[in-house]
């Protein structure tokens, strides 16, 4: 080999080694810069989630923690925990004295330990404890913020210098040192960087997925709904949302436990995945709230068909993992709403769409139908509901809720033995409204408790006044909702109101709908009814015979009176079958030594037939229509004068 050739080969070798060493150095510092940047981004996201939790806790302290708020709090806690878990993994190889390692990895008050406590605390929120841990976590993360920024800046600067050095050429000896000194460290850093990327991806999945079903959670649902609305606006087409809920899910959870309830939720998710298209948005927003959002001109019809198929499949028997439970059949209801989004209003459209789907589901529950589709006037309907809700709150504040009274008379003598108290709303613009106009909304919103209490107190006061005048010695019957009967304090509160009016429990009847006894959560209702009977209140079973296990209900507690539903009374004189059914119910009451009251009596012939059958009491338009307290007093006075005249 000539001297020139040897010189060229040696020079090329030195250059190659120099470039190789320079590139090793660039890769090393570049990996460090990437790791520092990802760590800083994770810290900012964790801090944002913690601050969002702080806002949730503030809201929780000023209002009842509803299902949506709890779900939001849980989602924020999961995101904070997932991101801080990724950060902790990235800090694991650092020296324990490193400032960031101390912030994240301290056993008791490190950021990762605090995040785990917050995740546990979000399952059963105690606002004060959460507040303390959140303040500590936010302080830790704000302490870490400048250190992360400093590390990211320093690493980025070093990587930039190394790159320019490699481009300009570095001395061979430095390149060789870089190859041997930096190589092993580079391998460790790249491994750590890959781990951090994987943890970041995992944390993002956890922050956006429901852990039970694997569907999108509420947070992801809102973002996906906005994205779909944006796409629909660009394509000039519509979007539709389906919300589907499981009937009596809370009762199922209480009866069979969380494991079986979770199995049911996963079963619902599998069915929805099988029925939906690949580009549809599927989510579980909390409890038994499932959503499907679709785009296209046929979205409403497609979601309607999807709901029908899903509800039919859910009704088929499912074998529970717990063999003691056996087969489970799930009933469900659905609400569907649609929207035509505009390009600049996708966020508002998405939120309104979900609210409209919720309203459609509420309408399905009220109407006891399987599926309800919100019509074109759905938004106006929602706005009317909101206005009525505001007016109902004002009605309570202004005492516009009042009792009207319908007499209950002895079938044989015609003597007034009682009154049923019926709720009315004296609306300042629309006049007197019957319960059909507002009761469903009052029960759904929870205002029925206050309304029932206000109406009962006024009814008791009127009854006490009539007794003081010697006009009346019978009982006043109060209609009580299932929601009121679930209240553990209801019996004590009613007894207190009765005593405050100067009456005894024996002067008051509590009227209970049979349907309340098969409610999702009937156990506390049955306990309260038994307690009312034990105190001395008379118990009336309303709408008796309408298909809700009527006879079995008579075994659960003492019943003093059954009210035969008007459906068996109307047209009694024209239907032999109705006469036989009515006679059977009156005979059953007599054999059990309880009173039978026929409601909905409208004609003299119906009154005659029922009296001959041995019915104890009669009520209906054929006796008297419901009337306000002052007219009921006048009616009593007129009856007394008629008796005196005879």
Automatic annotation (TrEMBL):
One of its GO terms (molecular function) is cyclic-guanylate-specific phosphodiesterase activity. Pfam families: EAL (PF00563), GGDEF (PF00990). The keyword Transmembrane applies. InterPro entries: Cyclic-di-GMP_PDE-like, EAL_dom, EAL_sf, GGDEF_dom, Nucleotide_cyclase, Rev_trsase/Diguanyl_cyclase. CDD domains: EAL (cd01948), GGDEF (cd01949). Keywords: Membrane, Transmembrane, Transmembrane helix. PROSITE patterns: EAL, GGDEF. Residues 237-376 form the GGDEF domain. Residues 385-640 form the EAL domain. The keyword Transmembrane applies. The chain crosses the membrane at residues 161-186. NCBIfam families: GGDEF (TIGR00254). This is Diguanylate cyclase (GGDEF) domain-containing protein. It comes from Oceanicella actignis.
């Amino acid at each position: 080999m000539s001297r020139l050739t040897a010189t060229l080969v040696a020079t090329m070798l030195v250059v190659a080694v120099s470039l190789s060493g320079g590139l090793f150095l660039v890769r090393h510092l570049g990996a460090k810069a990437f790791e520092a940047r990802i760590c800083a981004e994770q810290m900012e996201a964790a801090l944002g989630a913690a601050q969002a939790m702080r806002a949730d806790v503030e809201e929780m302290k000023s209002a009842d923690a509803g299902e949506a708020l709890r779900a939001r709090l849980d989602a924020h806690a999961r995101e904070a925990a997932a991101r801080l878990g990724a950060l902790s993994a990235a800090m694991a190889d650092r020296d324990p004295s490193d400032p960031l390692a101390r912030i994240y990895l301290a056993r008791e008050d490190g950021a990762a330990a605090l995040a785990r406590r917050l995740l546990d605390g979000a399952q059963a929120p105690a606002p004060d404890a959460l507040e303390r841990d959140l303040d500590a976590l936010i302080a830790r993360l704000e302490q870490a913020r400048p250190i992360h920024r400093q590390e990211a800046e320093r690493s980025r600067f070093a990587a930039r210098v190394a790159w320019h050095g490699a481009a300009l050429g570095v001395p061979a000896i430095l390149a060789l040192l870089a190859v041997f000194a930096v190589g092993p460290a580079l391998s460790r850093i790249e491994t750590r960087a890959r781990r951090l990327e994987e943890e970041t991806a995992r944390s993002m999945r956890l922050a956006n997925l429901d852990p039970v079903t694997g569907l999108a959670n509420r947070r992801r649902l809102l973002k996906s709904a906005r994205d779909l609305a944006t796409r629909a606006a660009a394509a000039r087409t519509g979007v539709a949302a389906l919300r589907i809920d499981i009937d009596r899910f809370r009762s199922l959870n209480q009866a069979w436990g969380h494991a079986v309830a979770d199995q049911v939720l996963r079963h619902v998710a599998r069915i929805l995945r099988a029925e939906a298209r690949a580009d549809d948005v599927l989510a579980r927003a909390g409890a038994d709230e499932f959503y499907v959002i679709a785009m296209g001109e046929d979205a409403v019809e497609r979601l309607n068909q999807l709901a029908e198929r899903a509800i039919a499949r859910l009704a088929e028997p499912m074998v529970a993992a717990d063999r003691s439970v056996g087969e489970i059949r799930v009933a469900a209801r659905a609400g569907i709403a649609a929207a035509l989004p505009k390009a600049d209003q996708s966020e508002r459209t998405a939120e309104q769409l979900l609210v409209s789907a919720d309203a459609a589901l509420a309408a399905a529950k009220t109407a006891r139908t399987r599926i309800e589709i919100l019509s074109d006037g759905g938004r106006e309907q929602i706005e009317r509901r909101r206005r009525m809700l505001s007016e109902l709150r004002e009605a309570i504040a202004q005492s516009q809720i009042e009792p009207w009274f319908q007499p209950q008379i002895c079938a044989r003598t015609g003597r007034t033995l009682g009154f049923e108290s019926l709720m009315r709303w004296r609306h300042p613009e629309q006049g007197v409204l019957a319960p059909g106009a507002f009761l469903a909304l009052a029960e759904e919103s929870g205002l029925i408790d206050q309304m029932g209490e206000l109406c009962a107190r006024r009814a008791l006061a009127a009854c006490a006044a009539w007794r003081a005048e010697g006009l009346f010695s019978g009982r006043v019957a109060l209609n009580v909702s299932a929601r009121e009967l679930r209240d553990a304090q209801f019996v004590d509160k009613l007894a207190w109101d009765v005593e405050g009016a100067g009456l005894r429990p024996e002067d008051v009847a509590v009227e209970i709908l049979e349907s309340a006894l098969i409610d999702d959560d009937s156990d506390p209702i049955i306990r309260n009814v038994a307690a009312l009977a034990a105190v001395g209140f008379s118990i009336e079973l309303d709408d008796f015979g309408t298909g809700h296990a009527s006879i079995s209900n008579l075994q659960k507690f003492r019943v003093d009176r059954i009210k035969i539903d008007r459906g068996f009374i109307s047209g009694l004189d024209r239907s032999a079958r109705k006469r036989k059914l009515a006679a059977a119910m009156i005979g059953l009451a007599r054999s059990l030594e309880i009173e039978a009251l026929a409601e909905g009596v409208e004609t003299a012939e119906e009154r005659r037939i029922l009296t001959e059958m041995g019915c104890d009491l009669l009520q209906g338009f054929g006796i008297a229509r419901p009337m306000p307290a002052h007219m009921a007093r006048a009616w009593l006075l007129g009856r007394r004068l008629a008796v005196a005249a005879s």
